[in-house]
UniProtKB/TrEMBL annotation:
Its cofactor is Mg(2+). Residues 369-504 form the ATP-dependent DNA ligase family profile domain. Residues 1-24 are annotated as: Disordered. It catalyses: ATP + (deoxyribonucleotide)n-3'-hydroxyl + 5'-phospho-(deoxyribonucleotide)m = (deoxyribonucleotide)n+m + AMP + diphosphate. GO terms for molecular function: ATP binding; DNA binding; DNA ligase (ATP) activity; metal ion binding. This is DNA ligase. PANTHER family: DNA LIGASE 4. The keyword GTP-binding does not apply. Its main location: nucleus. It holds the Pfam family DNA_ligase_A_N.
Length: 749
């Protein structure tokens, strides 16, 4: 750790935590030390070994803290500045940064004056294109290789400096001061090394990729840290309340204006309800399709927190004088209720039809303002605190008795979730069928004796049942795969997501469709082995999608694939989803909500996929819902778990065809302009000169290497004229200018 006699850097923080007076540990420790620790953790094998490294880092921090604050044991300085950088995905005190990989790529290109067609610029902009190395798909690693010869060898910032910069970026993004955001990034770039930039990028993207889970970090920090975080969702509170490892948290308290992770419903079989409810009576509630939201009230101050503890008080109203909800409900609270915490669902309500609207439609409940007949409505189903009385440890039936004493229902603004008493499986089936008829999301079954346990799902006493959990209950859609997207992380060598399309009915009956409309993007429902099979099946048919010159048969709007496949070379997949929603992202004008791939339809040819006409009929008949029938009491095949994903990564590198895998040219320096601006493609090479070595030689000469020849390719090189090379010669002249074979051998001399 750094010595304590270094001078702290003063900066203003926008974080929620109270700034300690005087020097802090974070103001003394160089940011590069934290980055070095993260590098070691990333390279270490095994979770136990990684946790041991973190434990050692934490102990050194605490030793330094003890020495620094020996004369002030009551200091508020703690581990929070480091914790919020180690677990950026759990950060709640800072607002959004408004920065994505593409934004940073353009920033680096601009700052360093990189030509847009330069190799480094293309690396940054096309960081997801797979290469022979594992860094493919990881923008931070790609940026490191581009920046390592352009940044200072050693940075000069402390951990506090970096946090202050992130505070500034978040604040300026919130106030739409983009120039100041860029200035903060520039200052960081001038004062950090490439390795620090790599970890800064991961922190700002909130993807650390060190192989150390939040449970491991919190558990190592303090035995009660995870429990406290689950209740408060505040890293600041965890670090301040549990700063000493010897002090145990006797009672995790739910308090006003401190958000907590809500209690959740366990996914369950209808056949298991009676057993899980201990063969006693239970409650059935309507499962509304809204946003889970806590309402905290104290006097005329109101706060609203989402399931992940994001603060939306600014949207719904911090006082009776502002927001889309608070002004309409402030007078509904009983006079003797000074403070309370409610749990419920924030929904969109149509005042004309007097019905809730699916959140899958084209609106965001958090930014909704009263427009025509649509308004914000809060549907309450639980209460955790009334005045000074905490209710979380009391049974549900007792908590529900408090609700009528807290507020008076206002139709369309603040209501109680409908519930009924039940005791049998048949009553559960009846309630689920009613939900299907009303186009509702499903039902929730609750044990009347259940206490409120934050962040608890399994064994909570709450069961959620949706139509899609029942096998063969949902309509299935036969869609055609027309596009693909490269994955990230360990899937970076795979096409991991697929663009599916609908066929436009041909004008003459009996003809095959010639035009296809983009419809949805699917990336779940299959195992890793199935994904490998899909990649192998389509490997030789993928083509790069050119946004400037797209294939005429495939019509897209905002969502465009990275690769595409001709319809006759593709196959139909069976897809399930919860409903069909309006969307301008896809050419169909609608898309699927929560799509998942069920299986490949080997029994159907490509031209037998669903049509736009069939989709529109289905959408109108069921008002967008995809539930095909009622549940029967005898239905017991319930889909309760996701299929286990294969975890073996050893087979992944062979999944993407070699023509899409380029040599890693990160370290190659240009020494000649002989091939400047020329695009070359090497199909194969003699054993004496491996393909990747030749590709590096091309880069040295200023050329660009592609794995698939296209209209801009200068020449294609091959040592042997095999079938693949012959196919290139047969390509239309308009596409390839009429290639002629060039043997590699003369070039080697």
């Amino acid at each position: 750790m750094a010595s304590a006699d270094q001078q702290p850097t003063s900066c203003t923080s926008t974080g929620a935590s109270t700034e300690p007076e005087g020097p802090t540990v974070a103001s003394q420790i160089p940011f590069v030390q934290l980055c070095g620790f993260l590098e070691r953790v990333q390279k270490k094998k095994g979770s136990d070994a990684k946790k041991l490294l973190f434990k050692e880092f934490l102990e050194k921090w605490r030793e330094f803290h003890k020495a620094m604050h020996a004369k002030n044991p009551n200091t508020t300085d703690n581990f929070y500045p480091a914790m919020r950088l180690l677990l950026p995905q759990l950060e709640r005190e800072r607002m959004a940064y408004g920065i994505k990989e593409h934004t940073l790529a353009k920033f680096y290109i601009d700052i360093f004056g990189l030509a847009k067609e330069s190799t480094d610029a293309k690396k940054l902009l096309n960081y997801r294109a797979p290469t022979a190395k594992q860094e493919a798909g990881d923008f931070a690693s790609v940026a490191f290789f581009v920046l390592r010869n352009r940044c200072p060898e050693r940075g000069s910032l402390t951990i506090k400096d970096v946090n202050d910069s992130l505070d500034s970026i978040a604040l300026n993004n919130a106030t739409k001061k983009k120039d100041l955001v860029k200035q903060s990034l520039l200052n960081l770039l001038r004062k950090t090394s490439a390795i620090e930039q790599k970890w800064f990028i991961r922190m700002i993207m909130k993807e650390m990729k060190v192989g150390l889970s939040q449970q491991s970090i919190l558990g190592t920090f303090h035995p009660d840290a995870e429990d406290l975080f689950n209740v408060t969702n505040s890293l600041s509170k965890v670090c301040s309340d549990l700063s000493s490892p010897s002090v145990r948290l006797n009672e995790i308290a739910i308090s006003v204006f401190s958000p907590f992770s809500p209690m959740l419903g366990e996914r369950a079989k209808i056949t298991g309800v009676e057993r899980m409810m201990e063969h006693k009576g239970f409650l059935i509630e309507t499962k509304l399709d809204g946003e889970r939201m806590q309402l905290h009230k104290e006097g005329d101050k109101y706060m609203y927190f989402s399931r992940r503890s994001h603060d939306y008080s600014g949207s719904f109203g911090k006082s009776p004088m502002e927001g889309s909800l608070t002004p309409y409900i402030a007078n509904c609270f009983n006079r003797d209720v000074h403070s309370c915490i409610l749990d419920g669902e924030m929904c969109a309500y149509n005042s004309e039809t007097k019905a809730f609207i699916s959140k899958g439609e084209n609106f965001d409940i958090k930014s909704l303002r009263d427009e025509e007949d649509v308004q914000v409505c809060y549907a309450v189903f639980d209460v955790l605190l009334v005045n000074n009385t905490k209710l979380a440890n009391r049974p549900l039936k007792e908590r529900l008795n408090y609700l009528p004493k807290v507020f008076t229902v206002i139709e369309g603004r603040m209501v109680l979730v409908e519930r009924r008493d039940a005791s049998t499986k048949a009553e559960v089936v009846e309630a689920l069928n009613e939900a299907i008829d009303k186009r509702e999301e499903g039902i929730v079954v609750k044990h009347p004796e259940s206490t409120y346990r934050p962040d608890k799902r399994k064994g909570s006493g709450w069961l959620k049942i949706k139509p899609e959990y029942v096998d063969n209950l949902m309509d299935e859609l036969d869609l055609l795969i027309v596009g693909g997207y490269f994955g990230k992380g360990y899937r970076s060598q795979l096409i991991s997501h697929f663009l599916c399309a609908l066929a436009v009915p041909p004008s003459r009956e009996g003809d095959h469709p010639k035009i296809f409309y983009s419809f949805c993007k699917v990336g779940s429902g299959y195992t890793l082995q199935e994904l490998l099979d899909f990649n192998q099946k389509l490997a030789k048919h993928w083509k790069k999608y050119d946004k400037e010159n797209p294939p005429r048969w495939l019509q897209c709007t905002r969502e465009k694939p990275e690769l595409y496949v001709e319809p006759q070379h593709s196959f139909i997949v069976q897809v399930k989803a919860t409903e069909i929603n309006s969307s301008n992202v896809y050419r169909t004008g609608c898309t699927l909500r929560f799509p998942r791939l069920e299986k490949v339809r080997d029994d159907k040819d490509w031209h037998q996929c669903m049509t736009t006409e069939e989709m529109e009929n289905m959408r109108q008949q069921a008002e967008g819902k995809l539930t095909g029938r009622h549940v029967n009491v005898d239905d017991d095949e319930i889909v309760t778990t996701k299929r286990r994903k294969a975890t073996s990564r050893a087979v992944i590198p062979v999944a993407v065809p070699s023509r899409f895998r380029a040599a890693d040219t990160s370290n190659v320096k240009q020494t000649s302009e002989m091939l400047e601006g020329r695009e070359l493609c090497i199909m194969n090479s003699p054993a004496s000169h491996p393909k990747d070595q030749l590709e590096k030689k091309i880069v040295e000469c200023g050329g660009l290497v592609v794995q698939n020849p296209g209209i801009d390719t200068y020449c294609v090189l091959a040592d042997k004229v095999n079938l693949k090379v012959k196919n290139i010669f047969r390509m239309p002249v308009a596409y390839c200018h009429g290639y002629h074979p060039i043997c590699c051998s003369p070039l080697l001399r």
